[in-house]
Amino acid sequence: MKSDIRVCSAWHDRHNRPVYTLSSTCPECGAPTENSAPAPYNPDDTYGDYRRARKRRRAEE
């Protein structure tokens, strides 16, 4: 299932809060939007161990 709700891709730089829309462009700044839904969970994720190890290394820094 694909989410229709999108968020401004440049909201960290241009806005003080996320800007959500249904459009392909941000109504406030005109930047392209991206899907706001997280990636679906897959129990057979072949790269999950690498991602979790990278997350642990970043937390230790």
TrEMBL record:
Pfam families: Nop10p. It comes from Haloferax marinisediminis. This is Ribosome biogenesis protein Nop10. Keywords: Ribonucleoprotein, Ribosome biogenesis, rRNA processing. GO terms for molecular function: snoRNA binding. One of its GO terms (biological process) is pseudouridine synthesis. Involved in ribosome biogenesis; more specifically in 18S rRNA pseudouridylation and in cleavage of pre-rRNA. One of its GO terms (cellular component) is ribonucleoprotein complex. Belongs to the NOP10 family. Coiled coil: none annotated. Residues 52-61 have a biased composition (Basic residues). Residues 29-61 are annotated as: Disordered. InterPro entries: H/ACA_rnp_Nop10, H/ACA_rnp_Nop10_sf, Nop10_arc-typ.
